[in-house]
Design brief:
The chain has 134 residues and is α+β, with helices and mostly antiparallel strands. It has one domain: Glutaredoxin. It has 6 helices and 4 strands.
């Protein structure tokens, strides 16, 4: 993939050391319509290279980000922006848009602070092979 195509590709950036984040990635792989999304752990070399190519987009290690090919979204908005890539039966979660971003992000932050306690075992899905950013 050339860098031009890569910069327009949808990418989910997540905490690769987080058991809950890895389970969510597996959930996405199980429910996506087609394999369009690339995945990259926030602490990976691929993410570091991507950030170097997009210095205008700020990212930290403590949240999830979704790049839709044009804009970088974080926290609850990132999660909701993933929904068009999911199968039809998941689309009911689009109701999340009716809640203000501050409320959605408060729920996101509540879960994020407890994520290491929610799921204990970190499993990396083998289907991520070939779906990494670089």
């Amino acid at each position: 993939m050339g860098s031009e195509m890569l910069s327009k590709q949808a990418v989910l950036f997540y905490d690769g050391d987080c058991p809950l984040c890895n389970r969510v990635v597996t959930w996405i792989l199980n429910h996506e319509r087609s394999p369009e999304i690339l995945f990259s752990a926030l602490n990976s070399e691929a993410t570091a290279q991507w950030k170097a190519k997009h210095p205008e987009l700020r990212m930290d290690e403590d949240t999830v980000y979704f790049y839709d090919g044009q804009q970088l979204h974080n926290r609850s908005t990132a999660v909701l922006k993933l929904l068009p890539y999911m199968r039809a039966y998941v689309q009911g979660f689009r109701l999340g848009w009716i809640f203000p971003c501050a409320l959605r992000d408060a729920v996101y932050n509540f879960v994020a602070k407890r994520r290491q306690r929610i799921v204990k075992e970190c499993r990396v899905d083998p289907r991520l092979a070939g779906r990494s950013l670089l």
